[in-house]
Amino acid sequence: MAKGLDAQAKQGYALIAPPFLYALVILAAPLLTILTYSFLTDGYLEVVRDFTVSNYVQVWTDPIVRTVMLRSLMVSALVTLVTVLLAFPVAYYVSFLVRPERKSLWLFLITIPFWTSYLIRVFLWKVILGYNGVINSSLTGLGIIDEPLTFILYNVNSIVITLAHAYAPFAILPIFVALEKIDRALLEAGRDLGESRAMTFWRVTLPLAMPGVLAAVLIVFIPTIGDYVTPELIGGGKIPMIANLIQVQMLALDNRPLGSALAVTAMAIVALVSVVFLLINRRFLKVRS
Amino acid sequence: MTDDRKPMIECRGVHKHYGDYHALRGIDLTIRAGEFFSLLGPSGCGKTTLLRTIAGFEDISDGAILIDEKRMDEVPANKRPTNMVFQSYAIFPHLTVAQNVAFGLRRDPRGKAEKAALVEEALAMVGLRGYGNRAAHALSGGQRQRVALARALILKPKVLLLDEPLSALDRKMREQMQVELIKLQRQVGITFVLVTHDQEEALVMSDRIAVMFEGEIAQLDGPEALYARPATRRVADFIGVMNFLPARILGEQAGTATVEVPGLGVVDLPERQISRANPDDEGPTIGFRPETMTLVGPTQTHSQPRETNATIDEVVYYGDMTYYDLRLDGAAAMDGKARPVRISMRNVFGRDVQEVGTRTRLAWSPGSLVLFR
């Protein structure tokens, strides 16, 4: 028995070895490099191998960094909120109201935005929301407005609109899966025990869908906080987020130690937020079978 | 059965269509207050649909359903005086046992402590005292079922609907729950409506049983009447085991029929043993239950009025019972077809199990025969 288990274990290790090595080289090595850089000294166009914590001191005391970091958190939180709030009804519709044989078609349609590059989609939103874009020219053409609307371009609103669209499928799918797993008899039981449809949703459907909702929150929140293309293009470069700051330090100013310290700090904050959500999620998962 | 109890559920000409599919075809039914009533039938006969229309989960296409003398047409499921025990039990997985049981008490004006006492009382009633703080997923199948029962009964419904509640349990557990359900029903006095495909379960538990085929009620009777005098061949076949032999009607007068049955000879049957509402168009048929006839040894005496010689074709031993497939002498006389009949004998102490090929005698009485025509 022990021998058989050994053979099985060996086979298991053999199977995970290639992806493990791949992850080590592609993921762990760069992370370690960044971590190392963040404790080294900037020597103008080169990295001097002197250990220092001054990068972190600078990052944590700089009011600009603090402002940008808080803005990034705020924007990501807003994007996450909007995305998940819009994704839930879509997931609910597909799970509860679409006929079973049509569901895969709907999921397929939901993934259509992925067919084009992220960059192109961001540009498309620029075309739609722009000063002379689709919305403004239509509205002026119809005589509804005299001057182009300015609140939809080069500000936080436009970033939220663009990112909410880009990440919608990421939010819809986990919520859909959570809703699909709910035994429909539970909803009938809720009605049978005297609750209206709305109260049954509140007391049965929503709590059971929470793991999916929290997964959606994490899946949207983590990448949006690190997004720098959308703020650059849609935000017009006027409202930088933390990723833009890192990009400037790393590439434009070639201060890799400071850029690394920024990156590590941002990562730590994201990790902290994620852990909080994971703990909440565990509470919801614990009572389920 | 006391027939003076007031009607609790009345179905009047209930029809249900799903597109082209006609699931319920004119159900007329009265279930009395305090009755343990069963809807019995094979899958797809409409019994669950009927239960769900009573619960309010399905609209009816035509007809009317009354509960406690009120029409239910416009009354949604959450406002009906019924509660249901679902086939899957539908225990809320995100709540504890106590929270599950208290689910329907949200709008009850009573205080927290009073509700907690009610929950504890309901759990005690189903034998789950002290289980309140358990997580729902930590329960066994039988315990889930008890929680589902407590959750429904705590609301004191006028009718408790049970949708195949025992089908997911193993045999021992099922038999135990059958007895417990009967006791519980007597204790609370609530009208129980049980849906089942298990004829044995229906016979054990019910005051009355409606046997359904293809969206229609084939027979509505008490368990004994249903078993002893099935209305149609199909009902007879569905409930328990019944032997069928072709019969030739020799004469009829004043409700009595004289029939000739190959293998059994000529018998006179009174009105009560004749089923005339027989849609199965297979000609006159005689039916009898396996346990109504007895194998007797060559020297043994018996008190039955008739006996027939036969050969044992097959022996199936069940421990407490033995089933014998017999070839009756002369059974093939009518059309040359061999028609084995099945006889069951209790293996009482001192009675030997017979062997295949043995010549034997079959003792019987015409009183055990039913004529379908």
Write the layout of secondary structure elements.
The complex is a heterodimer of chains A (289) and B (373).
Chain A: H1 2-37, E1 41-42, E2 47-48, H2 54-61, H3 63-97, H4 103-110, H5 118-129, H6 134-141, H7 156-180, H8 184-192, H9 197-225, H10 229-233, H11 242-252, H12 256-286
Antiparallel strand pairs in A: 1-2
Chain B: E1 7-18, E2 21-32, E3 36-40, H1 47-55, E4 62-67, E5 70-71, E6 82-85, H2 97-101, H3 112-125, H4 141-153, E7 159-163, H5 171-188, E8 191-196, H6 199-205, E9 208-213, E10 216-221, H7 223-228, H8 233-238, E11 243-246, E12 248-253, E13 256-261, E14 265-269, E15 274-275, E16 285-288, E17 294-296, E18 306-317, E19 321-328, E20 341-346, E21 359-364, E22 370-372
Parallel strand pairs in B: 3-8, 3-9, 6-7, 7-8, 15-22
Antiparallel strand pairs in B: 1-2, 1-4, 4-5, 9-10, 11-16, 12-13, 13-14, 16-22, 17-21, 18-19, 18-21, 19-20
Helix pairs in contact in B: 3-4
